[in-house]
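Batch manifest, entry 17 of 40.
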Amino acid sequence: MIRIGGYIGAIVLSAILLIFINGEIGRALLYTIIIAVAVSIVVAVISRKHFTVKMEGLSGVCECGSLVEFEVTLEKIGFCFIPHIMICVEAEYPIHLRTALLFQKSVTVKGYFRAEHSGLTTLSINNVVIGDLLNGFARKMPVEQKTHMAVLPMIVDYDGPEVFPNTLPSEEEEVEEGITVTHGGMPGYEHREYVEGDSPRRVNYKLSAKRGKLMVRLDESSGSATTNLFISSNALPICCDKAFALATKLVMRGGTVKITHKGESRTAATPETLDRLREWMAFREYARSTDAPISESAPADTMVIFKGNGEIVVTTPAC
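Output type: structure tokens
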């Protein structure tokens, strides 16, 4: 693409000098402009394929609403002289970064975006627009660069239908932080001292009162049956926030929670496992529109469904 407005203006000015003011000066200026335009365009055309674009991968997780920094590096691979470069980045909104690749071998430009939604956020470079020295010639270069940022679910208050933890024996033993018995002993009589991270449901309060310190059962589960939450495949990021809010509420009441999304599940029963659940949810990719198709149905034992539009439905699991 050539922006000819500036070129035409310069040529018209030269023609005016040539005809009405000073022929020699006008002629020299006209030739200079024509040569400059030609050289500028030729250099840009030659340089357009002699550089690479690389976006540095993001790592870790961030809080929703935080400002995230990323870097894009441009490196020469041969002769390259480009004074005007615009990098078109797509995050949760378009970002344009401007730089130049002149005498240095490479250049790194930093950009920022605000993590506005929970879940896995994609950062991509769709194209790079280069311009010549006079910035009259512009060419769009397609680029395929992607990286991701995991955004933790927002801490919100659960405002959906009331859900109570189950009181049936738990089958989710893998979420308990205790130690299983490996050497005999009568059920209910093997104990150890409480350590941080143990489930409060395993504490034997009667024995703890006698010994003056908290004692934890090793071979007996006093947990609660899992409350199964299902997030639809086309669920918006707000469903992630609401599901985690309900999971936190149930775990703090002594329950066990399992969340399923796109065929994968994670379970939490303690504050420690709840933190790991939150990180797992940060790496999940949620829909940006409720028009996205639902590729799966909720399992039969699902108790709470978070639909794509944010609606929360409490069900009665099939027996």
